[in-house]
Amino acid sequence: MSVKYTPVQWNRSKVFYDVVVLALVFTYVLTFVRLAPMFTGDVKSADGAIVGARAFGTCAFLMLTVILCIGPLARLDTRFLPLLYNRRHFGVITFFVALTHIMFVINWYFNFSPTPRFEALLTSNTSYFQLLGFPFETLGLLALFALAVLATTSHDFWLRFLGPRLWKTLHYAIYFSYALIVGHIAFGSLQSQINPTFTIVTAGSALLVCGLHLAALNRERQSDHRAGGGDWTHVASVDEFANGLARIVRLANGDRVAVFRHENRLSAISNACAHQNGPLGEGRIIDGCVTCPWHGFQFRLADGCSPSPFTEKVPTYALKRVGDVIFVSSKKNPPGTYVEPLNMAAKE
Amino acid sequence: MSTGALLIGLAEIWLYIGAIVAVAFLMFGIGRIDEDARGSYTFRPLLVAGVLLIWPIVLWRWISAELIGLDAVVSRDKPLRDAHRRVWIVLAVLIPLIFIVSLAVRQITPEPGRTAVQINPTAE
Fold it and tell me: What ipTM does the predicted assembly reach?
């Protein structure tokens, strides 16, 4: 970044996104509170706090399911990319919905406990060595803690301060928190559900998330052009490059390189965006710059630098043409190194 | 002292230390290591909760950045290569397994036609 930090970088589309998410949450909770007692016979006479806890709990689970579907959907179909753009705000809202769920639970089930409420929550069930009656509360607490870390480190400052590698490693906790939440529901609420609806919804959601991630991995494996080792790596024939798009090649060391054709010139830059390591090779060229499909960060093709006033840089790679085949150097140039684009008409 | 009370006590100590780190880092450190934060104050309260939770990482990064500069500490061109694939190969097995095991130990099976019966109507 080379602009001063602001509390929230809202723009028109982000405001629209947030308003829609909040409206959907509001509608879901209201609908659940009204309709759920008709479907779940066991809460007909229950207090409103239980229904509230269930409304916010199921809402948080469904929101997390949607969040985890956005990534692979955007890889499989670019029409879903707009959903990815503001996913961090979606995640923060999900954390607050989950927090509301636990406040309902604490204030209902542990309100009159002789021990402090949080202590009671941690000590009321300690059957960790048996599956039946497993303390599902702990699974939920761990997931909430993970969501808290993600929500509180979602500001762009953290990306710059921690770097994309450590930031993403930290934020991979969302995947494990999803597994914890599935366990929390499966060993908690589903153990006493008479109506199978929520069991089916939970199973369907979890299978959808797993299936989409596996499908995205399969797509990546298929499109990943794996090349052999050596100083130069085979990319593709000259006529296989579409104007304005990239071919992504995976080097022997595991790095991915995006080789873009812009008009009749080819340039190679790292496939990992300097912002969040998004897949630059799946982006488009706008105003002569590669534009990351995730958040719109831009990089010039020849030197991998963001246009002024931004200061991000990505590594570049040398290209060469042998006959009709394009090769990329396996040696990465330091970020921001200028490399003369390869004229597609020129043969070695 | 119960395990729960011990855990809560440890969490409180963690948060107290985090509060000290947050005050020091957000008032003095952040502007020294990140030029984009200099003269920008309104976003800093948003970072407090994050520092409270991950203050050891903040301290480690802060000290490293003071010694050799933030850009030298943070590598921006070393992406995680196969982490996503590895994580989802594990989770694609683990998540269904959790679900199946939970259903296997369940003592009530779904009965779509069954309706709730109130045992003691006068209890309300």
Answer: 0.85
